[in-house]
Amino acid sequence: MIKKYLPFISLLLFFPLTANAVPAPVAMLPLTIETAIKQFTPPYCQNGLQGLGSAVEKCYENTKDTSVTIDMCVLGDITIAKLLIQDKKADLSVLDRKPSEVIADKNIPVSGTESYLNFASVVKRLQLLGDMPRFYIYNSPQILAYLQQGADPVYKGITEGCKK
To answer: CB under 8 Å to 115, separation ≥6 — which residues?
Structure first.
């Protein structure tokens, strides 16, 4: 089911960015993936999406947007998007809108606990990555390729971690 929507999730990451000739990080560090799994699995296993949403919110609140640690928060957000789609709790109509429209929409919150369980809010946060100092010097395809390296392993690690 979720594989059907993977192209849509990839599109989420085609946010507007300043295109500079700066090489993006080539490979996501395994430590980043492992740490994201360790950080987000317990809250997800204990409290489901609500727990994961709270953990991702705290991750963003406690991480400077210049830090490579923000990558873990983004991977948590992507996992939430995948889970919302899987659980049929995602209004996919937001994907039909231009990124600039989603970003400008004042009715889509990007902060507050409820926004971490709202698909449109997750989409907006991911589209706003280009404004973060950590990512603004790279172009969209570079960031997409980089984040995709960690997205599936983190999703799998978190969801399968509860089965152990």
So the answer is: 109, 121, 125
Rounded Cα gap, residues 116 and 4, in angstroms = 22
SS3 (DSSP) at 64: coil
Distance CA 149, CA 15 (A): 18
Q: Locate 164 and state its tokens.
A: 């152990």
pLDDT in tens, 22-52: 566 678 899 999 999 999 999 999 999 999 9
Tokens 């430590």 locate to 31
Ranges assigned E (strand) in 66-113:
none
Determine contact, residues 44/51, Cβ cutoff 8 Å.
Answer: yes
Closest CA to 126 of 146, 90, 99, 106: 99
Report pTM. Answer: 0.84
**158 — alpha (psi -120 to 50), left (phi > 0) or beta?**
alpha
